[in-house]
Amino acid sequence: MPSAPKWLFDVVERLMPKLPQLQVSSTEMLSPSLKKIRLVGDVSLLDFREGYYMDFRVTDTDVRRYSPTFIDAQTGMLELLVHLHGNGPGNAFMGALKPGDTVDVAQPRGHKYYDDSVEKYVFFGDETSLAAAMSFYRSFKHNGQQFRFYFELDEENKGVPQLLGLENCVVLRKDGSCTDPKRIGSLSVFQDAGWHDAVFVLTGNVKSVQAFRKALKGVARGKVHTQGYWLEGKKGL
């Protein structure tokens, strides 16, 4: 429900368990379109898992979803990495946040795609997926799992994975190749049979997710999880 009448969101907020407001402690532009936002406060009531998202009411009538990179109850910190693109209300809200501002937060939710018993993971996404990728990365490293990241990124963002400290990354150009199953099938992970039993987590552009999933048919022996974050022409997916 990306948009709804103001009265409906007001009612939903009154019915939901009230969570403490968080305050923006710092912001940093990692590129012209990627902004890191750190919030501080009482996050002890937030149940966070790898890849979960949070709903933010960005106007009286609009809600948008963003994934934290981590939530740390000990330090009282929550970090977001948001993609600023276009002129929508989500971009206006997140783009304007500055230290000292306060933010209402909702309980994180989503699908449980992460399993610490899995030996290998392959994660695919774009700019909208980098926050989720960071949350998975922390667990991969902590539990000694094998992993590979594939990102389709604009030219201005191709250095961001390295800036974030992500390892085992392949950056793909956002030139339409990731919506072509045949071209996706040429990636090294498809050529290496040792990775065919990995768990695949496919996120980001719906069309790219669909193409990647199609390329995996007859190849992947492990689970394939999909979560499209956006689709051209569709508001607030």
TrEMBL record:
<dbReference type="InterPro" id="IPR039261">
    <property type="entry name" value="FNR_nucleotide-bd"/>
</dbReference>
<dbReference type="InterPro" id="IPR039374">
    <property type="entry name" value="SIP_fam"/>
</dbReference>
<dbReference type="GO" id="GO:0016491">
    <property type="term" value="F:oxidoreductase activity"/>
</dbReference>
<dbReference type="InterPro" id="IPR008333">
    <property type="entry name" value="Cbr1-like_FAD-bd_dom"/>
</dbReference>
<dbReference type="InterPro" id="IPR017927">
    <property type="entry name" value="FAD-bd_FR_type"/>
</dbReference>
<dbReference type="Pfam" id="PF00970">
    <property type="entry name" value="FAD_binding_6"/>
</dbReference>
<dbReference type="InterPro" id="IPR017938">
    <property type="entry name" value="Riboflavin_synthase-like_b-brl"/>
</dbReference>
<feature type="domain" description="FAD-binding FR-type">
    <location>
        <begin position="17"/>
        <end position="115"/>
    </location>
</feature>
<protein>
    <recommendedName>
        <fullName>FAD-binding FR-type domain-containing protein</fullName>
    </recommendedName>
</protein>
